[in-house]
């Protein structure tokens, strides 16, 4: 229902009540003021209820309570009751968040959410204690140092996982498919993730993996592409941009990374509660890949900023998206500092791709589906945004959504790509690119594409 229609409904009800209950029908302005006054009175009554409960807890709880802890717990409960991504950060957590967005933080190196009272791993960050210990996307962390995480807010659980470099922590993990809990001992470290890893595949394919979107991402990507273009020279046939298991990060970095490959047009837009708060970001001339063909790799761990980039390049047909469906986190969180008391992270808008598709709870579907393993085809679907408790709905109906522009590949090129690894293929080993089926299929696609259209430059 549109805002204007909702207002009209309220005013109509006020007139009806006046006509039935008394001989005097209030003018519309007076009626609206009366309703506003009644709403305010109800708000004050509920705030009094909160105060009564707070005083009862202070006076009668079995043990003395800290006022700040109780109030902060109440605030966090209020925010977490809205959706999975709104929360309260105390002063320490706020400082940690600011450090993390700068590209350096202390802890284990995992992006997490909350599910059923447990901490759920969205993705481990490359080359961190969590990744080295074998933590996997989809793992449920049930205990920290033997203590259950049930009853902890997500922020409280994250704080317990953070700590001084060199200190130890034990995680108890429930993993899908494992019959018994898994115990992992990790040593905390200062996390300085290398946000962009890059190399040449076979001297003709530029491969760059972005692990997150922090303040260093765009600079790191530009350096990676320029370095590989110098190394390969005229041999370069295309770029593989790997966003698998990239949990996202800063919006401005997602916009800049998308702009790096686009010459013009919309990158992403946001729509908030009030129409006047809608925003739109457009590309500026300049393509760091100089028109080279691009394949973007995504999977169920590609979220938020990763989906913005994949959606923008897909809608403009600047890239072919390959892999499996992304996570579907299409909401904007605004961090609002509270002087002296940390900050709140509040969901304030939804993201939309250039064609008007809402990312929320749907994600980005690949142009070409390629599974990482043969087992993945028979395994239960990996949990995504839509599976999270109180996840925002997708508000963009199919009838309102522009279709994704078709993939315009030369005849037969798409047939070169294999959806599944061959029977008996070796298990994936991060140190051996030849075991990465999705990456190898992306390279195969780019080489076949270049061979079929040697003179054609990718659309800008």
From TrEMBL:
InterPro entries membership: ClpP/crotonase-like_dom_sf (IPR029045), CtpA/B_N (IPR055210), PDZ (IPR001478), PDZ_6 (IPR041489), PDZ_sf (IPR036034), Peptidase_S41A (IPR004447), Tail-specific_protease (IPR005151)
Family of the protein in this entry: Belongs to the peptidase S41A family.
Keyword Hydrolase: yes
Protein name (Swiss-Prot/TrEMBL): S41 family peptidase
This protein's UniProt keywords: Hydrolase, Protease, Serine protease
Pfam families found in the cross-reference section: CtpB_N-like, PDZ_6, Peptidase_S41
PDZ domain sequence ranges: 94-162
Biological processes, Gene Ontology terms: proteolysis; signal transduction
GO molecular function, one term: serine-type peptidase activity
The organism of origin for this protein: Teichococcus oryzae
Lineage summary: Bacteria, Pseudomonadati, Pseudomonadota, Alphaproteobacteria, Acetobacterales
Annotated GO CC locations: outer membrane-bounded periplasmic space
CDD domains, sorted: cpPDZ_CPP-like (cd06782), Peptidase_S41_CPP (cd07560)
């Amino acid at each position: 229902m549109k805002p204007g229609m909702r207002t009209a409904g309220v005013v109509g009800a006020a007139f009806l009540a006046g006509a039935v209950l008394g001989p005097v029908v209030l003018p519309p302005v007076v009626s609206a003021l009366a309703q506003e006054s009644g709403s305010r009175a109800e708000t004050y009554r509920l705030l009094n209820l909160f105060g009564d409960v707070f005083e009862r807890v202070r006076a009668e709880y079995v043990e003395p309570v800290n006022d700040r802890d109780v109030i902060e717990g109440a605030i966090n409960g209020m925010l977490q009751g809205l959706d999975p991504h709104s929360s309260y950060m105390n002063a320490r957590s706020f400082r940690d968040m600011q450090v993390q967005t700068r590209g350096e933080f202390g802890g284990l190196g995992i992006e997490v959410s909350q599910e059923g009272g447990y901490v759920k791993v969205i993705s481990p960050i490359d080359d961190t204690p969590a990744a080295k210990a074998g933590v996997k996307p989809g793992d449920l962390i049930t205990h920290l140092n033997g203590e259950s995480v049930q009853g902890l807010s997500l922020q409280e659980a994250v704080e317990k996982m953070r700590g001084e470099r060199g200190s130890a922590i034990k995680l108890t993990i429930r993993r899908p498919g494992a019959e018994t809990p898994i115990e992992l001992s990790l040593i905390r470290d200062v996390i300085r993730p290398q946000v962009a890893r890059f190399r040449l595949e076979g001297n003709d394919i530029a491969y760059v993996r972005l692990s997150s979107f922090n303040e260093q991402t765009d600079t790191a990507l530009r350096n990676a592409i320029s370095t590989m273009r110098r190394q390969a020279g005229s041999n370069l046939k295309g770029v593989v941009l790997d966003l698998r298991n990239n949990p996202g990060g800063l919006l401005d970095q997602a916009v800049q990374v998308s702009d790096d490959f686009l010459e013009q047009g919309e990158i992403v837009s946001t729509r908030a509660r009030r129409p006047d708060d809608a925003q739109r970001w457009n590309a500026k001339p300049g393509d760091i890949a100089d028109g080279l063909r691009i394949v973007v790799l995504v999977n169920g761990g590609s979220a938020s900023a990763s989906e913005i980039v994949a959606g923008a390049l897909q809608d403009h047909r600047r890239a072919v998206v390959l892999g499996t469906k992304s996570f579907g986190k299409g909401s904007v969180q605004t961090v609002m500092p509270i002087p002296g008391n940390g900050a709140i992270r509040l969901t304030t808008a939804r993201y939309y791709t250039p064609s008007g598709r809402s990312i929320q709870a749907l994600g980005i579907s690949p142009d070409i589906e390629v599974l990482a393993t043969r087992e993945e085809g028979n395994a239960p679907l990996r949990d995504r945004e839509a599976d999270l408790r109180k996840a925002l709905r997708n508000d963009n109906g199919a009838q309102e959504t522009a279709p994704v522009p078709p993939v315009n590949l030369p005849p037969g090129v798409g047939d070169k790509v294999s959806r599944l690894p061959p029977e008996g293929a070796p298990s994936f080993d991060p140190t051996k690119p030849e075991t990465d089926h999705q990456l190898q299929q992306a390279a195969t696609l780019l080489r076949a594409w270049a061979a079929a259209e040697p003179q054609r430059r990718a659309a800008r």
